[in-house]
From TrEMBL:
<feature type="binding site">
    <location>
        <position position="191"/>
    </location>
    <ligand>
        <name>substrate</name>
    </ligand>
</feature>
<comment type="function">
    <text>Catalyzes the decarboxylation of orotidine 5'-monophosphate (OMP) to uridine 5'-monophosphate (UMP).</text>
</comment>
<keyword id="KW-0665">Pyrimidine biosynthesis</keyword>
<dbReference type="GO" id="GO:0004590">
    <property type="term" value="F:orotidine-5'-phosphate decarboxylase activity"/>
</dbReference>
<keyword id="KW-0210">Decarboxylase</keyword>
<feature type="active site" description="For OMPdecase activity">
    <location>
        <position position="63"/>
    </location>
</feature>
<dbReference type="InterPro" id="IPR011060">
    <property type="entry name" value="RibuloseP-bd_barrel"/>
</dbReference>
<dbReference type="InterPro" id="IPR018089">
    <property type="entry name" value="OMPdecase_AS"/>
</dbReference>
<feature type="binding site">
    <location>
        <position position="212"/>
    </location>
    <ligand>
        <name>substrate</name>
    </ligand>
</feature>
<feature type="binding site">
    <location>
        <position position="9"/>
    </location>
    <ligand>
        <name>substrate</name>
    </ligand>
</feature>
<feature type="binding site">
    <location>
        <begin position="58"/>
        <end position="67"/>
    </location>
    <ligand>
        <name>substrate</name>
    </ligand>
</feature>
<feature type="active site" description="Proton donor">
    <location>
        <position position="60"/>
    </location>
</feature>
<keyword id="KW-0456">Lyase</keyword>
<dbReference type="InterPro" id="IPR047596">
    <property type="entry name" value="OMPdecase_bac"/>
</dbReference>
<feature type="active site" description="For OMPdecase activity">
    <location>
        <position position="58"/>
    </location>
</feature>
<comment type="similarity">
    <text>Belongs to the OMP decarboxylase family. Type 1 subfamily.</text>
</comment>
<feature type="domain" description="Orotidine 5'-phosphate decarboxylase">
    <location>
        <begin position="3"/>
        <end position="227"/>
    </location>
</feature>
Length: 233
């Protein structure tokens, strides 16, 4: 997914259809999260795929290895391009997720599997107190990235601020998929540490996820093209 991935943070298929009509573009990269998936279901994913779009299904699985493997087998059958798990589920769970995706991929093309390390909503203090992890937040993110890499995953979701160090500790081809993207002088919404698309590229992100700057724009098509252009630089 080299194009900016648009986060479809909508609650119904109708809202998404209204939004996509405004972009009027074929072959977009779209992220479907829990809200939309729980509301619109697998049938809508197939519809988006049939329209030619690439899909990152952001369901963040975290369960025992057997359950995750079986769920991933079903997810692979939807023909999506990227999915994710929580690295906190452990190496065995991540390996099981991969194996489920492999056995469920009909075309032989397995969806990319990436891991969530620490949620960006988690503060270092919360992590240390609640998860009883005694390292810094960054060290925990790096540790989980290395664990995901050693389990054979294709990458992680991370902040642009962590991307270069993750690349250094893993491999240039290990994906660093980064949200928290805004155009210069745009409002941050609830994102704390934001970067522009060209900063993200410079900071070694391999893909960017962009939601509100496109979905809430007055003209989503213009906003999307601005982001594509900056990201491509
Ligand atoms: O609207 P905005 O561009 O902030 O949306 C970013 C998208 O990326 C949302 O779907 C959000 O849930 C997701 N995300 C994030 N930070 C993470 C992981 C995912 O903003 N660490």
């Amino acid at each position: 997914m080299t194009k900016p991935i648009i986060a479809l943070d909508f609650s119904t298929a109708e809202q998404v259809e209204g939004f996509l009509a405004k972009i009027a573009e074929e072959q977009l990269a779209l992220k479907v999260g829990m809200e939309l998936f729980y509301s619109a279901g697998p049938a809508f994913i197939r519809e988006l795929k049939n329209s030619g779009h690439a899909i990152f299904l952001d369901l963040k699985l975290h369960d025992i290895p057997n359950t995750v493997e079986r769920a991933m087998r079903v997810i692979a059958g939807l023909g999506v391009d990227m999915v994710n798990v929580h690295a906190a589920g452990g190496k065995r769970m991540m390996e099981a997720a991969l194996s489920g995706l492999e056995s469920g991929s009909k075309s032989g093309k397995r969806p990319k599997l990436i891991a969530v390390t620490q949620l960006t909503s988690t503060s270092e203090q919360e992590m240390q107190k609640e998860q009883q992890i005694k390292t810094s937040l960054l060290d925990s993110v790096l540790h989980y990235s290395e664990l995901a890499y050693s389990a054979g995953l294709d990458g992680v979701v991370c902040s642009a601020f962590e991307a270069a160090e993750i690349e250094k500790r893993t491999h240039v081809d290990f994906l660093r998929v980064t949200p928290g993207i805004r155009l210069l002088n745009a409002k941050a919404d609830d994102q704390k540490r934001i970067v522009t698309p060209s900063d993200a590229r410079r900071m070694k992100a391999s893909s960017i996820v962009v939601g509100r700057p496109i979905t809430q724009a007055e003209n989503p098509q213009i906003a999307y093209h601005k982001i594509v252009e900056e990201w491509g630089k």
